[in-house]
Design brief:
Mean pLDDT: 88
CATH superfamily: MetI-like
Number of domains: 1
Radius of gyration: 21 Å
Low-confidence stretches: none
CATH class: Mainly Alpha
Number of helices: 11
Shape: globular
Strand content: under 5%
Number of strands: 0
Length: 231
């Protein structure tokens, strides 16, 4: 009964338009989307290059990308904190405890996911697709774009996975953002703060938002993939 009561109160809180609650939601979505837009082009390019070309140190780069997948978010936050603090090499930029610092951290977190999943997707494509494109007179760039088009749904799925990771992490956001109300306090840091104070209603409300976001983006991806499969 207590859980039902708290959930009902959480839904009422969301419907009331609580400013602090919706501010945290807005900051989370904004930071994650910007980070994803920044990380996606270089990560997808790296994944494609690692899958499609053979060159010295390629294997080392693949291992590095795979290692970064398992790197704890708090470790990335710690590294960025040391780089952006006043004593760090980039302290003069004054980015620590800002949304910009959070964007950098989330972009770093999303990068290996996007690169690794793109790598796997391109490796899974029939090599004859590129050969056919070249036979028809396509240059290297056109051939590469043809391959990427073939794995477009896998790339979108990679972006969805990247978004899911960065919007639900807390370690990096807390360390480089500082959990400042109205500025860097996002969904996960608010949940951690409010539940530590015993305010479970706010935590449940934001948990519902996270679940709703996950359902919407995955439903959209499934719908997109379904339409692609019918063609």
């Amino acid at each position: 009964m207590e859980l039902l009561h708290s959930t009902s109160a959480a839904l009422q809180l969301l419907g009331s338009g609580d400013a602090a609650l919706w501010s945290a939601i807005y900051i989370s979505v904004k930071v994650c989307l910007v980070a994803l837009l920044i990380a996606s082009p270089p990560a997808i390019l790296l994944g494609f290059v690692l899958a499609h070309y053979r060159f010295p140190c390629r294997r080392l780069l693949v291992v590095l990308v795979q290692t970064l997948l398992a790197l704890p978010t708090v470790v990335i936050g710690l590294i960025l904190y040391m780089l952006l603090s006043r004593q760090g090499p980039f302290g003069s930029w004054r980015l620590l405890f800002t949304q910009e610092a959070m964007i950098i951290g989330e972009a770093v977190l999303a990068f290996p996911i996007l690169a690794a999943l793109t790598l796997a997707a391109v490796q899974g494509v029939d090599s004859r697709a590129a050969e056919t494109a070249r036979t028809l007179g396509a240059g290297r760039l056109r051939s590469a774009l043809t391959l990427l088009f073939e794995v477009r749904f896998a790339v979108v799925a990679a972006m969805v996975s990247g978004f899911g990771r960065v919007i639900s992490e807390i370690g990096c956001a807390m360390m480089v953002g500082g959990n400042i109300a109205g500025l860097t306090r996002n969904i996960t840091t608010t949940i951690a703060l409010e539940t530590s104070k015993g305010a479970f209603v706010q935590g449940i409300a934001l948990g519902i938002v996270l679940i709703a976001i996950a359902l919407v983006i995955n439903f959209g991806l499934a719908l997109l993939q379904g339409r692609g499969g019918m063609r």
